[in-house]
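Homework help board

Subject: predicted structure for assignment chain

Our instructor gave us this sequence and asked us to write out the predicted structure in token form, then describe one feature. I got the tokens but I'm not sure how to describe them. Can anyone check?
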Amino acid sequence: MSNCKSCQIEGQVFPLSGEDCGIINTDPLYDTGDCVLDENGNPIIPSDDEIDENASCIKTPSGLLCPAVENCSPFDLSESTETCIINDYVAESINIGGAPLNVYRLLGVHEQGSLQDLVGAGTSFSNGFLPGYSSANAFDKYVTEYRSLQTGEDVVKSAFLGYDFGPIKLSNGRTRYGIETAIKFDVSRIQILQGCDSGNRVTKIRIERSNDGEKWFGVAIQNLPDCDGMVTLNFARSVPSRYWRIRPVTFNGGPDDYWSIKALQFIDYEKTKINNIQDRILLENRDRDYDENPIKMKCAYQPIDTIGNQTKFGFMPGSDKWVLEVSFTSAIQMLGRPFVIGDIIELPSETQYSANLTPTKKYLEVEDTGWSVNGYTPTWVPTLMRLIAVPAISSQETQDLFGKLTRDVDSSGLVDIDNGQNDVYQDYSDISQTIKADSNTAVPERGEDVANVAKLSDELLAFSDAHPEMNFRKLDRKRSPYSADALPPNGQSYTEGEEFPTGTVVDGAYHRQTYDQIRKGIPPRLYRYSKAKGYWVYLETDKRYAAKNTKPRLQEFLDPERSSVTKNNELDG
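My token output:
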């Protein structure tokens, strides 16, 4: 253990990416170079009067850039001095006379997955190991380690270490299906703890995936610091796969040195990044993260004349679309990157005021970007970005800025959005609930309503049948078999409860039997007392109740539309 070297020892220097240096976006247009760390592991940032060409991390209006540049910014599309001067004049003119613009940067998709190690029910594999140092040791405990069978140059040529997540199984461990299946994970983070000696470590690895263990696809190539600490590697998501492995690209050891790994973890966690894609089928990013602190810029745009939003009445004018022009250089300096689809911008010049002088801000969402034809130099170099923006709406995507849309209920039963204190959603919630309440008042029950339709007596119907010229049956109440509600006809009174009435009962009295004390979900039944028989006669069951309190059935059950005469013998007995 005497050769162990900590990952955080004083004076240790190794290359970092632009993101580690504080750059928001490591786009290829940036020449980030290598940043040097100080003794505390922080990027070295020289003072303004110490900036020179060889400085590693330079402070600029947009943050940190590596390396420094004297005149033009590293994203310029031309090395021409004339183009650089024109670009500066364009940016300066917009900054002087442009309209104010508040930009809420889209940071990317919210953190996806979890930090839990995915390894567990599968099996490890490698291309050979030394006796007593199997591949399973890398996925077991930190005190054990895996040692490759290959040594020296053969480590780079043929060594690898991976994990097979296996087929889909039952809880007892048995294979669930008779056909070949596979548990697939979309790994986007690896944590690796290499051996103690530097000669047993690799400093660059290739991450690969496979669905059959034979055909392998490259996912990422990552650099590893030469130390014995736990190192976390983040890379972009690729494709959910059954097999995942790492292969050495650069090995420190000599001809007799083996590759050693104490711990290896595969994780599907993906941190917030601007280039992440959440839904790869619809290509949507719904769980977005925004910078809640606006960045002030200037823009040029042509105001549009919109009287009001009439979309709720079905009128879609399609003119509420804004075209803005911003300096590409200013965007890079202020945002650290160009504008992207999904950025939220606020136009203070378009603020409206209510009757009580409450300002209503104008928020727009960028839906397209490109070069503006008004910003080309005489040498055909673009300097202005053209933004197409539409009014931003409160949704799952923008809840970082406009607040959440879901209602939470506390222990006292109070709903947070409907507590009268939410200025953003209270009107929306009140209007929605008012519409629902009014519609329920007007139509309390779905389907046909026969409560006010007369039900002729059996005696009158029998008399009508005996006299064909008197067709009273066409005037009788007509209802679907599924619209029975277990209520007496013609608005007659009835009793209701778990038990039948006791004492003296009038002949023909109705009782609606409920069963709440027995079990929830049992539909009520209607009975009529027969004095001649001396007991309560069953008439019908509440079919509507049964349909509403069970799983969805046919539409006829919920909204009966087909009417027919229901005879007594057709009711449930």
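Reply (TA_rk): Your tokens look well-formed. For the description, you could write something like this. Residues 1-37, 45-73, 550-573 have pLDDT under 50 and may be disordered. That's the kind of observation they're looking for.
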